[in-house]
Write a structure and sequence with these properties.
Helix Hairpins, mainly alpha
Amino acid sequence: MAVKLTKNELKTQKDSLKQFQRYLPTLQLKKQQLQIVIRDINLELEKKNSELLAMQNGLDDWIAVFAENSLFEDALRLDKLIRPESVVTGTDNIAGVRIPVFRDLTFKDVEYNVEDYPLWVDTAVFRLKDIARLSALVKTLQRQVELLEKELRTTSQRVNLFEKVKIPEAKENIRVIGIYLGDQQTSAVVRGKIAKKKLQGAAS
């Protein structure tokens, strides 16, 4: 879009440039903060994924006894004893982004007769609940990363827009308008001198 070559437009462009240059450091700081937080969460996510894998691998010793699960009546299967109810989360605000924070995974109270099960079932239920809680935590961390990465992309686009488009554009417009107004002023001075000489010549 062609810029108007006027003093008012020059002021508008200078005001815009000041605004862009004032907001840019804030955006750059936000971008840096998001990058650091995302890195930290990814490190935590890697750690929790390793813990989850270790816990799942720790069930290998239970494979033989878990096979007994298929021998139970349908109403007595282990999956009937472990019934997740809801993921309890709080919220946190990171650089203006609201993210979920894992608190707990609750389970429905399931009463069962210990006489219906072998001794290992209590321990199995305990371990499987721990795995389910850790899995819910991992999913919450993944959601945090998704939300923060989305905001990071938006912030990076704004930083690039200011750095590579808006600020250079405003500077160029100021330069062009300045040159034009300077030329106009010079032309006016020249025309004034010519007119003055003509008047002086006519008077003499």
